[in-house]
Amino acid sequence: MALLQISEPGLSTAPHEHRLAAGIDLGTTNSLIASVVSGAASVLSDTQNRRLFPSVVRFLEDGGTETGHAALSSQHHDAPNTIASAKRLMGRTLNDLNGLATSLPYQLIDAPGMVKIRTIAGDKSPVEIAAEILTTLKNRAEASLGGPLTGVVITVPAYFDDAQRQATRDAARLAGLQVLRLLNEPTAAAIAYGLDQAIQGTYAIYDLGGGTFDISILRLSQGVFEVLSTHGDAALGGDDFDRRIADWISQQCPSANLSISDRQQLLHHAKNAKEYLSDTDIAPIAFELSDGTNIRLQLDRATFWRISNELLNRTLKSTRQALRDAKLTNQDIDGVVLVGGATRMPHIREAVATFFGRPPLTNLDPDAVVALGAAIQANVLAGNRGDHDWLLLDVNPLSLGIETMGGLVEKIIPRNSSLPIAMAQEFTTFRDGQTAMSIHILQGERELVSDCRSLARFTLHGIPAMNAGAARIRVTLQIDTDGLLSVSARELTSGIESAITVKPSYGLDDAQIARMLTEAQNKAGDDMRMRMLRETQVDARRLLDATEAALAQDGKTLLNPAELNAIRQCMHHLVDVIETEGVNQIEALRQASETLNQATQEFAARRMNHAIQHALTGKSLEHLAL
Ligand code: ADP
Ligand code: MG
After folding, report:
1. pLDDT digits (tens, 9 = 90+) for 220-253
2. Beta bridge partners of 219
3. Known catalytic residue at 207
4. Which of 8, 35, 6, 31 is nearest to 20 (CA)?
5. What pLDDT shows up at residue 507?
6. Residue nearest atom 25 in ligand 1 by C-alpha distance
7. pLDDT at residue number 513
8. 3-state secondary structure 424-487
9. Would residue 49 be called left, alpha or beta, if left means φ above 0 and alpha means ψ between -120 and 50 degrees?
């Protein structure tokens, strides 16, 4: 259905037509693009047969850019204009980044919503940097596949929040790509291994990249992956292993006086040695420092493992925490997937195997698994798989809720919840004796009904007449794996029930979703004020209703005409205030409600006494003692 859209808009396929679609792993260190060609997913290489594309963009004075390998090689002589690791900045403000800003070789400046980077070509948003990378990958794919891409699936870390996901979508739009879906990186890795073909299972995805470590626990049931927990360390990756080797090298030659460019050389050779040690037992390290000193060393595996063991242990600590968060033990895991170039290190593989008591899945290239899984998903979403005319979604893209008093939306299922999902909330009646309740289901992030999209309405009839607030109506929203929404409402004291299944025939496209989200972000302040106003209005009406009911019952017997008149005056005033929209309406409503409250205090006290006397009439003291 719509929000849970089944085939993407405009993508219903004519038979035998193959649409070009690709999966993109937009990584912190390296990015890749892959596609399903003749039934098998494969990574698309550049003209020099390189598959990894460094996620680096250099801005030039004339407004031009260099990306990938070209930018990477400029990094050491033009660091302030050469932006690496921009993924860490996506959708983040300076405040979100804590200390990170000071450790970067380029200058960050604060901007509303997201930081910017000061370059020779002006201030650049991380979204523009990601768009440069995506554009290069898009061109690579279109050249190699021989036509324009219909759509792409882009992967994001499972822990990415709305702002980070939205920034990724915006980058794709800037690059002229149609995003079929954002897919969680661990889910993509699991799909690459075909784990989604099983009936069910629980999997651990261990991802050690260049500068980040992520562990995710996924559960597959009925064809849908649910992220049970994620943990990790945003400042721990393959680069830290390079630093340990660089430190070791400098300890071997204590007399050397290292310049900044020596330190960079050291890191470069350390990285080579690290990667070399994944295939051999001993790595030769030979280069010359700027003062002419010759470095000639050999690093063996045992030494490397010893000096990097603490880093490895930190990843296992996170893994333990992720299992705890998912309330599982390593015994519950049916499969372990290794992701990220740094998991090529044999001691990592051994440690992970020992930890889980089973060998991890490693037959796919760990740098490529995420892109391959994304490519498989993109192929399905583009409609190239005839055997699937519907698709499974792993999250719902917009919040679902129901209308409450005052034209407000109470969200029940938050956006990005993984599917299937069922969530319930209790509501109550607003008026005394109310016997029906109209249930209006809405989709969107805004606070007011008029700003969200109406999906369906139905009425729960037959609620037993009770005082306002006494009925307990539980409304349950459920989205199944086919993306079908059903809503049921049940009055708990009487058990009467009503239900509806919602399946709109049209959907929201990504642009509409993006617009609704941007609006929600921009209007958040207005919405809060509007929500407060509506709530105050509802409270005021409730007070009027209650007073009216009390007057009808006891007004004549307990009040003299002057007192009755005073209360009526206050009620009229409150009605006037409710009907006069204005900037200070909330305050005016509060004052008028308070005045009415004051005016009815004496009346309330008399009613109470009256009620007690009535209850006492004819009862003996013994009865009361009970
Ligand atoms: P990201 O997800 O951060 O973009 P990648 O998955 O591409 O990163 O991982 C990059 C890291 O993998 C780098 O630290 C790199 O040195 C490391 N790496 C790549 N190949 C090997 C190898 N053969 N042995 C050890 N580490 C490797
Ligand atoms: Mg990665």
Report:
1. 876 678 888 889 898 899 999 999 999 999 999 8
2. 202, 226
3. yes
4. 35
5. 42
6. 275
7. 58
8. EEEECCCCCCCCCEEEEEEECCCCEHHHCEEEEEEEECCCCCCCCCCCCEEEEEEECCCCCEEE
9. left
Give which of 124, 122, 172 is closest to 151, Cα–Cα.
172
Which H or E element spans position 532?
A: helix 524-550
The residue with tokens 């500068």 is 211
Is a pLDDT exceeding 60 seen at residue 9? no
Helix, coil or strand: residue 331: helix
Task: Please give the angle made by the CA atoms of 556, 562 and 568, to the nearest 5 degrees.
Answer: 75
Q: Of residues 87, 138, 271, 274, which has the active-site annotation?
A: 87
In tens, the pLDDT along 190-207 reads 999 999 888 789 999 999
> And the tokens for 385?
């798989």
pLDDT (mean) for 564-578: 91
- Cα 470 to Cα 462: distance, rounded to the nearest angstrom: 15
Amino acid at 575: V
Domains and CATH numbers, the chain: 21-237+308-393 (3.30.420.40), 400-512 (2.60.34.10), 523-616 (1.20.1270.10)
* Residue with CA nearest ligand 1 atom 13: 210
Distance CA 429, CA 466 (A): 9
Region at 524 (left for phi over 0; alpha for psi -120 to 50; beta for the rest): alpha
Kindly identify the ligand whose nearest atom is closest to the C-alpha of 43: 1
Distance CA 515, CA 397 (A): 13
